[in-house]
Each structure stands twice: as structure tokens, then as C-alpha cells.
Amino acid sequence: MKNAFVIGHPIAHSKSPLIHGSWLDELGIDGSYSAIDVAPENLAAFIDRVRQGEFVGGNVTIPHKEAVMGLLDEVDPLARTIGAVNTIVSETGRLIGRNTDYLGFLANLDQGAPGWSDISGAAIVIGAGGAARAVLAGLIDRGIDRIHLLNRTLSRAESLAAAFAPSVVPGALEDFNAVAPAATLLVNTSSVGMGGTQFPDFDLARLDGRAVVTDIVYAPLITPLLADASAKGFSTVDGLGMLLHQAVPGFEAWFGVRPEVDAALRARVLAAT
Ligand code: ATR
Hints:
Elements: E1 2-8, H1 16-27, E2 31-37, H2 43-51, E3 57-60, E4 74-75, H3 77-82, E5 87-91, E6 94-98, H4 101-112, E7 122-126, H5 130-141, E8 147-151, H6 154-163, E9 168-172, H7 176-179, E10 183-188, E11 212-215, H8 224-231, E12 235-237, H9 240-246, H10 248-255, H11 263-271
Parallel strand pairs: 1-2, 1-3, 4-6, 7-8, 7-10, 8-9, 10-11, 11-12
Antiparallel strand pairs: 3-5, 5-6
């Protein structure tokens, strides 16, 4: 039997056991996926257990996504650029770290707004935390040549932009209305929207009329930002799909079958959110 895990501290809130457990059942795979609470001081010992073959791999969440990088045998270049590992694959004891958040972000947009990257225009990314790093990597990968990175704390946007590419232009949240007219994509990666909070001064009507608006927050599923965008006639993509799609590459690497992100899975995870 193949065993996989998600480690974090705390870990009780993780939706990953539900996602992977559903796929294991549906596909009839002899495998397990368990949530394991690992405190920071026990991370190295846990990784040793993985290296010894107890697991085929697993997911890594807060607070271990950065710290685990130093304990693995290899970290793929993209995960290194993003600065975080969320997926470990054990290849006969050799531990490889990957970051599948950026793949999840892109797959969710591809499914929810097909052709989005063919609409020429700039992107606006709100937030400068770990999620923003994965989103920036994804957008750069798709050739988006101008990205306005807006953050409440301007200095964080500036240092993140400097670490990425000259096409990433830092700004403050107050710059939104000025940069909006050229933007055909708006991505919220900040925690604004969780529990229904909202941005005070964004005039979404200023966005390019073809703009797609997406939020990585998925609780609530329709954040105030998405509700406003959809009321103004923009295409919107909610954040639940990113969570589901980021799980696909790990499952495929551990269990050898590529699982589907379908409506039944969405409904099951949504009901548990
Ligand atoms: P993550 O790794 O999930 O991206 P994070 O590193 O804590 O999380 O980043 C959260 C992001 O949400 C940051 O960009 C943060 O802005 P600051 O850099 O100014 O802290 C942003 N954020 C959180 N609460 C916010 C609020 N009330 N208004 C605007 N931005 C907010």
C-alpha cells in the first residue's frame, strides 16, 4: 500500500485529506493519505521517516513550506523561484520538492476562463505573500508581459517585484484605479475577502471590458470582489478550483493515476468549507 501525507501545524483545517481521499476511493487505489500534525522542531525527524520509505510523498503546508526546502535532496527550479515547496515526491528515498500552487492557479483559470491568456493586456496581482509568488511565476510562464503587483505594504511589493522580473511593477493598493484600464486580468492573492471582507476603494468598472477577475480566497466562494466583478459583467473564476487543481500533480506522482477535478469533487469540498 502506498501512503501519502499532508504535514502542517496546525493541520486540522486542511482540505487535502478530503480531496485525495475522494480520489483514492473513486479510483479504487490501495493507498492512504493522512493529515499529520508536525511541529517545527519535529520536521527534520519526520522528513527522515519519509526518506526511509514509509511514504511515497505528501503535501507540506504552513509553517513548513520554506523550512522543508533545506531538508530535501532536490528542489525543482520553479519551487526555488517561488521560495516554497508544497509537494514532496519520494523517488526510492530521494526526496524531490515541487510547488504545484502555480500549476493549480493556471489550471483553474484555464478551466474557468478558457483563452484568458490570449487576451492581450496587463495583469493586476493584489498581495505580496507566498500565494502571490506562485501566481507571479504562473503569469510570467504564460508570457504576461506587464504585471502590476499592488500591496497594502508597498515595500513588500517592491522587494517581491525585484526578485521576479522587470515586467513586475510594484505599487500600492491606492494605484488600482490608475492601472485598471489597461488590465485584462485581476488576481487577488491577499487575504482580503476571507469571511466577506472587502477592498474599500477599487472601482472595478475601470478595468478593460474583457477582464477576467479571479480570487484565491474561496471562503466565501463568492467573495465581495467576485460579486462586484460579476455584477459589472466581468468573467469571474473562484478560488476553490486552485485548491483542487494544485492537488492533481502530487496525486499523479504518488499513485500513478491522473485524477479529475469534477463537479462532484467541487461540491464535496465546498460542503466541508
Ligand atoms: P500568503 O502566504 O497566504 O500569501 P501572507 O504572506 O500572510 O499570506 O500575505 C497576505 C497578503 O494579504 C499580504 O500581501 C498582506 O498585505 P501586507 O503585505 O501589507 O501585510 C495582504 N493583506 C492582509 N490583510 C489585508 C488587508 N486588510 N488589506 C490589504 N491587504 C491585506
